[in-house]
Design goal:
Blueprint (H helix, E strand, L loop, with lengths): L2 H23 L1 H12 E6 L6 E2 L5 E13 L1 H14 L6 H16 L6 H8 L6 E7 L1 H10 L4 E9 L7 H4 L1 E2 L5 E3 H5 L1 H5 L3 E6 L12 E4 L6 E4 L3 H18 L3 E8 L5 E6 L20 H4 L9 H10 L8 E4 L2 E4 L2 E4 L7 E4 H6 L3 H11 L1 H10 L28 H4 L10 H12 L3 E2 L5 E5 L5 E3 L6 E2 L3 H10 L27 E11 L4 E15 L6 E8 L14 H14 L18
Parallel strand pairs: 2-10
Antiparallel strand pairs: 1-8, 2-3, 3-4, 3-5, 6-7, 8-9, 10-18, 11-12, 11-23, 13-16, 14-15, 17-20, 18-19, 21-22, 22-23
């Protein structure tokens, strides 16, 4: 056989072997590879549900926007190859400039500048976003004129109120998932479930007709209706900020509850943020919710616990006259009243109206440590309220086993324990609601995409005191806002009084801990107030805290949060046209005068 014929036979043999390999051995793998190259799985994003106030006003909702996309390396290469093959094709560099100018002109002054767009279009990256959050109509104009520019669906979360209730509502990140607040804790409810579908593309990239399969439709997220009242929230938020500035306080917060249901009508802090500006503009210090995350010592506001125990267990009555000295010694600890006085004939009502530490501790001794500890527990102190907001603090209450000799000299007057503004307000809700404490809630209902409502279950109430005791306490604590021209029968919270309405409440002043000596400061205080209006038929329970103010909440002398209560309660009563109260009685705080 000649060399030429042998070579030919060898070549034919190699071809035959390769053909056999392709047809029999490699065929399945190659077929799968080809299928994978033409098969596309597309995700259909679910629309995030809205968050509304109790009246359906939208606090957060989603609109569908577009993101303009570009593949710099691939597109420039394609443009160059097209120009090489056909000199009449667009010049690559000119095409890039045309895209930049057109996009800039369409997006206007709020969009990226032409220079920024050119930098992205000329980059060496395989993929870039030219612009985000683009109106779908504008995006369609761009992609219709320039096929080289792509458009991705991008859901945009809108917060029409800006900073309104932002510490409660929270915000989503660039990925559309909840990052803080209710947006985070209810993310699984709001987000819904994405859908998907699979289809094939031909060699030209076009979808092959009839190739759609494995289609799973997206299930949009549920909406969430809150208990908040948008108008009241706005007003309270505004007043809290003004109170902080007027008083010179380091911070301030306030909570408004529905007296009967415990639902949160407003929750405001001086520090807030605008979620609509996006994560790049958020300051972490402004994203917390101090009303539930930052406990403080409440001071005399906590005397409601002592008063409740004293009346409930029958160790005193509203009119009993106590001979109250200027100081008292308990377990080696001497406690003084805030003002100097000899033995004074204060009524039980006067002890709380004038906020006598000594008189309060005298009554606490009658109650006893065990019954007092039980009353603290009934008021829910030292426990999370279960409101459903992330980061809630339970506060700090020493367990009965942790009590030392001086514990019982501190707790009845509001020192040695801590609570949040929400917990403090919740204590007074129990008294406003005839002794039944309803754990506060901020989610009212969930609304399915088809409009079906699922009301949140009302939490079980906790019996703190009897209805009769609660009525007596509402009467006693009206003395706090009583004003006597002579000063003798005045309470400590007279600026909280509202003409035409009965108001019951309590002021509080608690020494802050000085970190330098780890002891109580003699110059820095938490100033608190909690109360209800109208006291004869409560509608609103309002609690507030000022951290280290140098003036009152209205900028006047002294240190008091009572003016802030007056402002908020007056606005709510007038807006809702609550009928006036009977004329309040005149209380005897100090007998024999």
């Amino acid at each position: 056989m000649s060399i030429g014929k042998g070579t030919l036979l060898i070549a034919l043999g190699v071809v035959a072997v390769q053909l056999l390999y392709v047809q029999s051995i490699a065929a399945p793998g190659l077929s799968a590879q080809a299928a994978s190259q033409r098969t596309t799985k597309e995700t259909e994003s679910a629309v995030r549900g809205p968050i509304t106030d109790r009246n359906g006003n939208r606090l957060a909702f989603t609109i569908t926007a577009k993101a303009l996309t570009f593949q710099p390396v691939r597109v420039r290469q394609q443009l160059a190859e097209a120009r090489k093959a056909d000199p009449s094709a667009p010049d690559p560099d000119q095409r890039i400039k045309d895209i930049a100018e057109f996009v800039h002109n369409k997006l206007g002054p709020t969009g990226p500048k032409t220079e920024e767009l050119l930098e992205k279009l000329r980059s060496d990256k395989p993929f870039v976003y030219l612009a985000r959050n683009v109106d779908p109509r504008i995006a369609n104009e761009v992609t219709a004129k320039f096929s080289q520019v792509g458009a991705e669906r991008q859901d945009l979360r809108e917060y029409p109120g800006g900073a309104l209730a932002a510490n409660v509502v929270g915000a989503t990140g660039w990925d559309g998932r909840g990052k803080i607040g209710l947006e985070s804790s209810l993310d699984s409810v709001l987000a819904g479930t994405d859908g998907s579908r699979t289809y094939d593309r031909g060699s030209d990239g076009a979808v092959i007709p009839g190739s759609y399969r494995d289609q799973e439709p997206a299930v949009n997220g549920h909406g969430v209706e809150l208990t908040l009242d948008e108008d009241l929230q706005y007003f309270v938020q505004q007043q809290v900020q003004q109170a902080k500035q007027a008083s010179g306080a380091a911070s301030a917060s306030a909570v408004v509850l529905d007296a009967k249901t415990g639902q949160v009508l407003a929750m405001a802090n001086d520090n807030t943020f605008n979620p609509a500006l996006g994560p790049a503009n958020w300051a972490s210090a402004d994203m917390s919710n101090p009303s539930i995350t930052e406990p403080f010592e409440p001071g005399s506001v906590n005397k409601i616990v002592t008063a409740a125990a004293a009346i409930e267990y029958g160790v005193t009555n509203a009119d009993e006259v106590l001979q109250v000295p200027g100081s008292i010694r308990m377990s080696g600890v001497t406690v003084n009243d805030a003002w100097t006085h000899d033995v004074a004939p204060y009524t039980t009502t006067g002890v709380f109206g004038k906020s006598s530490n000594v008189g309060t501790l005298m009554l606490a001794q009658r109650v006893g440590e065990d019954r007092f500890a039980d009353m603290i527990d009934r008021f829910g102190l030292g426990k999370n309220t279960g409101i459903g907001l992330p980061g809630e603090s339970p506060g700090q209450v020493p367990t009965r086993a942790e009590w030392s000799g001086g514990t019982f000299a501190n707790l009845p007057i509001g020192q040695g324990l801590s609570m949040t503004t929400l917990q403090m307000t919740g204590m007074y809700q129990a008294i406003a609601n005839d002794g039944l404490r309803i754990p506060p809630r901020i989610v009212k209902a969930r609304v399915a995409p088809d409009g079906t409502r699922s009301e949140e279950l009302q939490p079980d109430g906790v019996r703190v005191v009897s209805p009769q005791t609660a009525q007596t306490l509402r009467t006693i604590f009206q003395s706090t806002v009583q004003k006597d021209p002579m000063g003798v029968q005045s309470g400590t919270g007279a600026p909280a009084a509202i003409e035409g309405y009965q108001v019951a409440g309590k002021t509080g002043t608690a020494q802050k801990v000085d970190p330098a000596c780890r002891c109580y400061s003699t110059s820095s205080y938490y100033i608190t107030f909690a109360g209800m209006a109208p006291a004869d038929n409560p509608r609103y329970v309002i609690g507030m805290m000022l951290d280290a103010p140098v003036r009152s909440s209205d900028g006047s002398g002294g240190q008091s949060a009572a003016p802030l209560f007056h402002t908020i309660a007056s606005w709510a009563l007038q807006r809702d046209r609550v009928p006036p109260s009977p004329e309040p009685k005149q209380f005897v705080l100090e007998a024999g005068l």
